[in-house]
Amino acid sequence: MQYAPLGRTGMTVSRYALGTMMFGSAGNTDHDECTRIVHTALEAGINFVDTADMYSTGESERIVGAALRGRRDDVILATKGHFALEEGLNRSGNSRRHLLNAVDASLRRLGTDWIDLYQVHRPDWSTDLEETLGVLTDLVREGKIRAFGCSTFPAHELVESHRVAEARGLMRFRTEQPPYNLLARGIERDVLPVAERWGMGVLTWSPLGFGFLTGHHRAGAADSARARLRPAWFDPENPEVARKLAVAEQLAQVADDLGRPLPALATAFPLAHRAVTSVITGVRTLEQLDATLKHVDLVLDDATLDRLDAIVPPGTDVYDPQSPMPLPWLTDPALRRRTAATG
């Protein structure tokens, strides 16, 4: 297992991080197997575990907390907050009110006195960045969190956050967690250069492109639990899906030529970028983890990266990884159109 500095936090993390989004009702309901996954990852040298309060509505955090009992000091533990876990006003977002409650609730579920890396899970366009950075700074000073970061922020919001931190004397986001894979390379245009310029750690998610890089969808044959659950996602009659399948077929040929499975190629790809610290591998079963661990030695050489660039040019997206969380100024006409009344 290889390790890298987590930005400029002073912490060192494994280049493969264990993602736990599939722990609990959203994926694997067998808590014992989830615990074995955590322990197997630690024994393989993974010291970075990433979860979030909204994963299975807190169940993932409880599983992770129980699995780390007696081993907490060996792990860099990351979690996230932003989304609502229950209905009601003021129960989501990046406000002081919500984040104070969310951090305390995560600490209880995780059974720990501190969180190594706390991340705001998405931008909150209704809350001033000074408000968010202010409460996160206070939480560091209280000792509840060691450092804080953000997830899926656009580049301009990263720049603005650093400007606000400098102007107000606040601590700043130390990490960014964006989606990044062989089918979604758009962040190479701006997010990754901005993160590198500011010395931020980058923890990428979705290395398998929401299932299209698992190797189960070659030649248009969708054979996976996700495809059976959401067949429309993998409908080859859909032009966008057909494009993804065609590109995945070309990428699979590169993997075949390397003598590696496609998921190994896909998971190694984000780590080839100089700005990326760790790739988050969100496994559901112990078998999936074992398959990942077999190929952590894979380092892509220049010749392979050139072939990948020819298939998916740098900075381009075969699909929009942000589509589940669209930007409000693109989806709300009132934010991008002048009305007749205002001229």
UniProtKB/TrEMBL annotation:
Domain of life of the native organism: Bacteria
SUPFAM superfamilies, per database record: NAD(P)-linked oxidoreductase
Lineage: Bacteria, Bacillati, Actinomycetota, Actinomycetes, Glycomycetales
Keyword Lipoprotein in record: no
Residues in NADP-dependent oxidoreductase domain copies: 17-311
Name of the featured protein: Aldo/keto reductase
PANTHER family: NAD(P)-LINKED OXIDOREDUCTASE SUPERFAMILY PROTEIN, NADH-SPECIFIC METHYLGLYOXAL REDUCTASE-RELATED
GO CC annotation: cytosol
GO molecular function, one term: oxidoreductase activity
Organism listed in the record: Glycomyces terrestris
Keyword annotations of the record: Oxidoreductase
